[in-house]
């Protein structure tokens, strides 16, 4: 098949759609791109909901990008038949342009999460704004022939008239993470500090303040050294909560090209610990990426995470910093278990969540529609 990747998605900020494209290519499909990243983060888009006059910036940039995307799409069509158009993450508006340009081809929307649900998770409470975003979700879903989400729980949020369009495709891990050299073969050293890493956008979903509180409780435990990577909404609270711990290194961010190797140099990768409704429905990219890098995954005990990770991770109650402290202290005292869990996490993500495996249901759907 010849697939057109379409939209204003940004692979450097949201690698999920890149994993889909990697899987299609690995399965023998040709993937051509019509992509100009919009350049606004999720946090900036949510801020626009709080200050509606900023939406004009979004509209101006989107229209300019659409002009370039439409030209790229015409060139791609001139180079051969397009069998399907896959619209990348945050493509609620892009899918409408794709439908206008490609009326006969199947349109796939990598919805992943709903706009209204994300706004609620970020603290938006205005009923008119939420109603508008819910309407946007419905319009975008209606414009697509196939809708991709990451968990069964998120699939249940899709309006029932369109539920038959949904395919569950877990986030998975990019090829760049699956190919990074990992330390799972290194003999366990009971005298070395347990190296823990977290990377993310410090959102309520991730429970960054829970992590910061746990690190504060670990301030006198020199057996555990932690690297915190990223910035965002809850970063100041997390830093304040962990301020007494001298064994924490803070990094504003790391380029995507070097992040896999940095994570692989740690023993433990922290997942998410938030208690929002959305946090209980997702399995985030950092969980798959950390497992691919050969780290022990410590994350919240939620139905989708336990279902997908099975017995290859350490689970703690969501929102419980004391439980997180207990899990890390246990791992610091049992380095043989750390080695076993690192190897198990790596094998599990390679066997179950490699890109070519993840896209199999999507390819089967597209083959039926061809």
Plain-language structure description:
There is one protein chain. Helices cover 45% and strands 16% of the residues. The chain is α/β, with parallel strands linked by helices. The protein folds into two domains: 2-172 and 354-369, Glycogen Phosphorylase B (Rossmann fold); 176-352, Rossmann fold (3-Layer(aba) Sandwich). The strands form two sheets. It has a six-stranded parallel β-sheet with strand order 2-1-3-4-5-6, sandwiched between helices. The protein has a six-stranded parallel β-sheet with strand order 9-8-7-10-11-12, sandwiched between helices. α9 (208-217) runs parallel beside α10. The radius of gyration is 21 Å and the shape is globular. The model has no long low-confidence stretch (mean pLDDT 91).
SSE blueprint:
Layout: E1 2-7, H1 16-26, E2 30-35, H2 42-50, H3 55-78, E3 84-87, H4 94-101, E4 107-112, H5 115-121, H6 127-143, E5 146-149, H7 152-155, E6 166-168, H8 175-178, E7 194-200, H9 208-217, E8 224-230, H10 235-241, E9 248-251, H11 259-264, E10 268-270, H12 285-292, E11 296-300, H13 303-309, E12 313-316, H14 321-333, H15 335-352, H16 355-358, H17 360-369
Parallel strand pairs: 1-2, 1-3, 3-4, 4-5, 5-6, 7-8, 7-10, 8-9, 10-11, 11-12
Helix pairs in contact: 5-6, 9-10, 9-14
Q: State the shape.
A: globular
Beginning-to-end CA distance, first to last residue: 9 Å
In CATH terms, the superfamily of the largest domain is Glycogen Phosphorylase B
Q: What series of H and E elements makes up the topology?
A: EHEHHEHEHHEHEHEHEHEHEHEHEHHHH
| Total strands | 12
Biggest sheet, open or closed, and with what strands and sense?
6 strands, parallel
- The figure for the number of domains is 2
Name the structural class: alpha/beta
With strands numbered from the N-terminus, the spatial order across the biggest sheet is 2-1-3-4-5-6
Taking all residues together, what is the mean pLDDT? Answer: 91
Strand content: 15-25%
What is the CA-atom radius of gyration, in angstroms? 21 Å
CATH architecture of the largest domain: 3-Layer(aba) Sandwich
Number of continuous helical runs: 17
Helicity range: 40-55%
The top-level CATH class of the largest domain is: Alpha Beta
Low-pLDDT stretches: none
